[in-house]
Amino acid sequence: MSFANPRSQLRRAWQAALPLAIALSIVLACAFTPAVRADIFDTLKSLTGKKDNNAASTEEIGMGLKEALTVGTERVVGQLGQPGGFNLDPLIHIPLPGQLDKVRDLLEKVGMDGLLTDLESRMNEAAEVATPKAQTLFVDAIRDLTLEDVMEIYKGPDDAATQYFRSKMSGPLAEAMTPIVDDTLADVGAVQTYDKAMDRYEDIPFASSVDMDLTGYVVDKGMDGIFYYLAREEAAIRENPAKRTTELLRKVFGG
Question: Which InterPro entries does the entry link to (predicted)?
Answer without folding.
Answer: DUF4197
